[in-house]
Design a protein that fits this description.
The chain is built from nine helices and ten strands. It is an alpha/beta fold. The chain has a domain of 156 residues: NAD(P)-binding Rossmann-like Domain (Rossmann fold). The protein has an eight-stranded mixed β-sheet with strand order 3-2-1-4-5-6-10-8, with helices on both faces. A two-stranded parallel sheet has the order 7-9. Strand 4, helix 5 and strand 5 form a beta-alpha-beta unit. Helix 5 packs parallel to helix 7. This is NAD(P)-binding domain-containing protein.
Length: 228
Amino acid sequence: MGNRIKEERVKFVKVLVVGANGQIGKHLVKFIQEDEQLEAKAMIRKQEQANYFNELGAEVAVVDLESDIQDIAEAAKDVDAVVFTAGSGPHTGKDKTIMIDLDGAVKTIEAAKKANVKRFVMISSFATSREAIQQAPENFAPYVAAKHYADEWLRATDLDYTIIHPGALTNDSGKDQVQVAEQVDRGQVPREDVARVILETLKQDATIGKAYQVVEGNTSAKEAIDSL
């Protein structure tokens, strides 16, 4: 009886990962599928990207982020949380930065509202203030501006949001050693460890309404998030 009661108290959360085929997204879906309390739904742009997620046992939704809000809302209608990890990438022009990093993010926020999903985690850029836009190199400023306005749009909603600002992303193997705070010194962080921070963020309601930066450090993702 005791075990049955304990099992009934487990909070099971289904998470829509938008941009799941990206490098952070792939790590995150894997971590979610390995977690006993979470389940992933991977939103991808092309059906041929599905094999990786099928092998993990994750549900797949094929939706182009440049399509209509309703299409994204359909993917979100049966989930408990949305994580926006999508990005246009460093080799695209300003047009894709606007369409994915800004409009895609805003449409996903609106789709979550339409689907009655309250929990929303945004993966942003390290610094997205007005000052950061002005100080950014010319070729990087459009991206920072897009992230700034997407973050502001999210803050203006009544969603249970968290905004994560990772440092310079690397493809190094994660060590689960991070520093997480509202403000930290600039630094690097493996994408795999950013995914670990997202995972712990989803599991902690205390992260709702907060924004924090993430770089390499000497604390596990769980300990770092627990201490916020």
